[in-house]
Protein 1
Amino acid sequence: MANAARTRPLFGCIEAGGTKFVLGVARGPRAILRTARIPTTTPAETLDAALSYFETAREELGRFDAFGIASFGPVDLDPHSPGYGSITNTPKPGWSDTNLAGVFAHNFDCPVGFDTDVNGAILAESLWGAAAGAGVAIYVTIGTGIGGGAVVDGRPIHGWRHPEMGHALLRRHSDDLDFAGICPFHGDCLEGLASGPAIQARWGASLSELTLDHPAHDIIAYYLAQLVVAQQALLSPEKIVLGGGVMATLGLIERVRSEAQRLGAGYFGKQDYAVLVVSPGLGEQAGLFGALALAQLRLEKK
Ligand code: ZN
């Protein structure tokens, strides 16, 4: 056993969020040994704290084989770009053009898997969670913002930049025509209509604070269901994982499923919406599992 433990790769895992960084050290798949969280303040302060955490771990456990970083976005994922591994034009003060991947690659002399937090989340869910076994799987988080990631045959989708999903445009609910939406770019895109702040802006409360017979529940479900049906038409996913604070609302996922079934109008054949639309399976440590999955994928590609 001792030998086997030593031969399993050591991974540094970072879930880089707008309010906190969650750090972890793992020995092999799913085996997170220790975790810590530090507040996201300035890049210099936060990265110094993260580096010192991993330096201590290296002294105790040996050298790292790879790092995985699942970051808030937008991020630069183009390996040929000088900005590769950076957060790009974020509204978070001080963090635009902050390089994350290069810092850890340089200080720990190992490969770094770098991606959006939602691409990390769906990679982990497709390996170990609610989307296990799916060839095409999508993760959407509905919270302060709405963001989505997708995996096709074990690889996160990047393309021109990376999937966003929150800024998808959609059809308005007939009882929700007076609200302009809160997206600074589009007004009434999905994020502008169905994110936590958009719900707060028109009803003065979070969705879970509104009684279950409040029309907000059906209105929000209608928008999320449109994303589900659009994804069926665009990518033919086997799993769509819906997470984030808004999705913790009692009964919301059931409303999304039945609304999607209605909007899909039978076109997608026997696809069962209870199987297609699911909650995350990795719980509290989902973000960190995302980073671990990215580290593992990067090491496999080496
Ligand atoms: Zn938008």
Protein 2
Amino acid sequence: MEFAKRMDKLGTENSFEVLAQVTKLKEEGKNIINFGVGEPDFDTPLNIKKAGIRAIEENKTHYGPPAGIPDFRREVAKYVSKTREIDVCADEVLITSGVKPMIFYVMHALIEEGDEVVYPNPGYPGYESIINFVGGKSIPLPLLEEKKFSFDINDLKKAVTAKTKMIVINSPENPTGSILSQEDLEEIAEIAIKKNIWVLSDEIYGRIMYSGQFKSISSIPGMKERTIILDGFSKIYAMTGWRLGYGVMVKDLAEQVIRLQINVDTCSATFTQYAGIEAYRGLQDTTYEMLKEYRERRDLIVKGLNDINGISCLVPEGAFYVFPNVTKVCKSLGLQDCRELQRLILQKADVAVLPRTSFGVKNIGEKEEYLRLSYAISKENIIEGLVRIKNLLENNI
Ligand code: PLP
């Protein structure tokens, strides 16, 4: 069969390959501990579920405006204005079926063939895939363990050229759990303003932070008009399957994105947006409970990993991922890289983790090996998974 040439440029999330292996092993009757999935194990809070059900019962099941229900757009504008300390109006808010489609839309609206886009590496694989798909040139910005998985300003300066159209940032970050400091954000802002560059700021984990106050680059003077804020309901409200997110951007760009929305999905599910209104207006207690539990799990998993010979793990400050360095383990076991280690752990210990390579190819000169473990699973499973990994690795070294 012949497919359109552009399909060659589209990447995939190869975390889904590991998840397919997990499904197969489970079907074979294996009891797999799964640190692979990047989604909360919690259920959507009851008040939000009820609001969605109520909306269906009230027949809020028809087409809605492509940019989103006005009431919801206003609510999001209020929320973003408050949390980012900027003035956002409803016209600048576009509702989408999750954050993911907005990455696709914004890149289609802004990136020309040959434009360069700087993105974090290791990072969420969706960025690189879409940059390439729209004909842009993807320029990785290395995140370095010695900088707590932030970037080196010299690397950023080297990455930015006269062709740079956009810088993608993600803080707190998937897969490292790192946070960009105010200083980091100011450095990026200075370059973006000086060189007239857009910033796509993926803030989906903005409320899953364990220390300090969340900072958005859009709050820095001169940045709101060149930042596209991405945020959504999948993570903090455990609403992955509802498919609900949004982008905030200047009106001129929003108008272009609406044209894409009209052509692709007409609108996001109407009743889901009513659930979103409740998520923002209702009590936030359940989100605090989830956050408390994530923090305890984070401490448990970091300690457990550091107790395994040959593994060292920084304490991440946000999101629900850890990104341990496994270079020594790979060497001791004679493994070529973290992919071989991931396969070994899955086959011999029945534990699923993701290799660093699921989050981009290694940067030039990068010698270390890493895994990503999601701790959006129960404490019992975290303990059991770590015991299995420890037994496997320490008995084989
Ligand atoms: N951005 C990042 C950094 C993510 O980790 C994810 C999901 O894992 C997404 C975006 C997509 O989220 P959504 O479910 O809102 O499409």
